[in-house]
Amino acid sequence: DQQVKQNSPSLSVQEGRISILNCDYTNSMFDYFLWYKKYPAEGPTFLISISSIKDKNEDGRFTVFLNKSAKHLSLHIVPSQPGDSAVYFCAGNHGSSNTGKLIFGQGTTLQVKP
Amino acid sequence: EAGVTQSPTHLIKTRGQQATLRCSPISGHTSVYWYQQALGLGLQFLLWYDEGEERNRGNFPPRFSGRQFPNYSSELNVNALELEDSALYLCASSSLDRAGGYTFGSGTRLTVV
User: Backbone phi, then psi, for B77, in 5-degree steps?
Assistant: First the structure.
């Protein structure tokens, strides 16, 4: 049961352009969604989150959009930089039942070309 | 402030042996989470410890177990190692801020030969 899906395994963009990473979910009980960035041989690093009652959250070059009716969220990176090249994971956090676990998608590998 | 620390960084074991992985959370965090990332796969939830108790476990066999100590550090034990247990094992800790997510350590790369 894949509750969080990232259907694009990889994405390649040119430096300075916008990167858009997508994520779909099936569980309506998530109250927070989070994006993590992971470099090889390192642990994931928290990037940005959004509450399920919001539709947008912005932090510098990173903006997350949430479309609850479509059960879809996206991470926009503008402008993209070569240092953004990494694997990006979206994750959902349960609300009413505190299971303690984040449910992660499979990840999308972003490559930003100079 | 020190982050989440894990040891060892790399571990090579033979099939059938036992592996012990260690994690120290961020100071003040009482919850510790363990995740497995097998090659080419996402992060799979293993275990959650809080205040010394196991609160939840993922869909893994009983060979995977652990504990949390009074200082909130944690151990993950994997018994009767199988080749498919080869993976990156990540530990994370969190505060009560649900918006802030979890802070992960750099992981232990376990290789079973």
Answer: -115, 135
